[in-house]
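Hi team,

Filling in the usual template for the complex we talked about on Friday. All components are listed, including any nucleic acid strands or ligand strings, so the model treats them as one assembly.

SUBMITTER: L.P.
PURPOSE: interface mapping
COMPONENTS: two
RESIDUES: 645
SEQUENCES:
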Amino acid sequence: MEQQIVKVKNKKGVRVIPGFGLSMGVTLAMLGCFILIPLASIFISASKISFQEFVEVVTSKQVMSGYLVSFSCAFFAALVNGVFGLILAWVLVRYEFPGKRIMDGMIELPFALPTAVAGISLTFLYSDQGWIGAAFDKIGISIAYTRIGITIAMVFVGIPFVVRSVQPVLEKLDRQYEEAAMMLGASRMRTFFKVILPELFPALLAGFGLAFARGVGEYGSVVFIAGNIPFETQIAPLLIMTKLEQYKYSDATAIALVLLIISFILMLLINSLQIYMQKFSKA
Amino acid sequence: MREKIKAFLPLFGPKGQNCFGGLGKKTAAFALCGILAASCLAGCGDGSGSDKKGDGTELLNVSYDPTREFYAEYNDIFCKYWKEQGGSDVTVTQSHGGSGSQARSVIEGNEADVVTLALAHDITAIENSGMIEEGWSEEFEGDSAPYTSTIVFLVRKGNEKNIKDWDDLVKDGVEVITPNPKTSGGACWNFLAAWAYEQQNGKSEQETEEFLTKLYQNVLVLDSGARGATNTFVENRQGDVLIAWENEAYLSLDTHPDEYEIVTPSVSILAQPSVAVVDKYAKDHGTEELAAAYLEHLYSDEAQRLAGKHHYRPSNEEILQEFSDKFDLEMNLVTIDDFGGWDKAYETYFQDGAVFDQIYTE
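RESULT (copied from the run log):
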């Protein structure tokens, strides 16, 4: 039996996509054309200004506050997504109920919806005249045109990342461990935190990272729900647009470059943490 | 029947173990590469076309948002006129968007024959990239602005806060909606109109700056574009007053007839949306004559009336008078020349670190 499987695997033409050479070529071409070359062009464009000018642009007060707004809101949004994305994934994997498939499909809607449409409808709902916003307005919380509004838009665009990262891991998670923990007398809380969560954590972290990165770069939906007031609700991508409107391409790319570098470092940290966690949980 | 289907599907081998079974792997790979290479070449061909294209009967008019309906009607008028003049059938394609981003799209290779944008500044940006020859603003009458507009206030029906003029906007508790002049070219006029009001009332430079600071402190949402600001005011019902272009304010009245009123301030600014032939692309397409005629005909009586119908002020004085019950012709309108021209105004007020940036501090 064993031998047969090996034989089938090596049999010519079993691979769906022909040839390592060709598929690798396509991979490199795709990476090059769609990721590396555009990113490299950011570096080139930013290098048109001197280092001193670059530093001046990216450390100006408005830009710094833009970074702060973008990163802090994206962080909180990713945190919210981490908690609620986990619950959503849990419900979708562990329970059976009517309409589950439809709900499962709905998770991906934020991907499909043009972000401007999402932004306009979120603002409509969360402004102090909107359905949800009016209720919060009564207790003195305004959502639209504040940082809370920005965070909500980022939660919206980021939620599928967490759900879709956690779901497959949760599906594969063997229930025997939970049962064993229960049998050995662990409380539900303890079972969750000591048995289930460590298994899910790397996936959760990956989802968190993706949602975070998406939030930092999000422009289309946030720009409608943020008041865009400098030093309060102005996000970094909007500042990039501001520079573009003034035909200052290099300034715009300078801001983008810093955004990119910070995001890259944060993603790298998250990834290393994830790898560390995986090793740790296996040990 | 079945055989036929099979014959059409040589790629799916008889037993389905190999996708390219029928053809052989190498052939398939070559074919695939061939297709990729061909599509790449086709793509390059499109981009590098500096040779004459088209037969000179197609025009691309790159314009900005609120002119959509106007140009849709104007194109019919022009096509008829051009045929009467002995020309051939013409097709005009329109493109609309924010004025600044439309200008950028032309700079980056959107092959417009003519541009009809909100601001002379945006056309100057295209000129600076070398696609429009110098002196475009003298090419047509009235600084190449066939129709004009001005800045007015849109308030909710009843005008509860009793907003009559610019100084009502700085009062406590008045919430103002206006876009950010740094992202929306059109919003620069809003700023300049308020500035002009203070200057006309004999205020000093410093007093004017304080006035503007107060005004922008009352701004609730600083949208990135005029369309966004209108949306915030009209659909999301935020704020008490929207500072807007007259033609756009009328568009909001058209869509919500009983909900809004237009208030005309005592002082405002003459906004001149400008037009120009994009010389480089018109030459490439062989449409120079047609493009010039297209813009020239905007000054015809028929087109001027159409502009008035679409809420732009006709540049032809006589025809403007025909609309005297629609437009407040008593307003004191300053022009951009009072600010020393666009480039100077932009430098003084809107450049990074200039007056507008000083309004907002941490």
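MY TAKE: DSSP finds 16 helices and twelve strands in chain B. Chain B touches chain A through 39 residues (CB under 8 Å).

Thanks, L.
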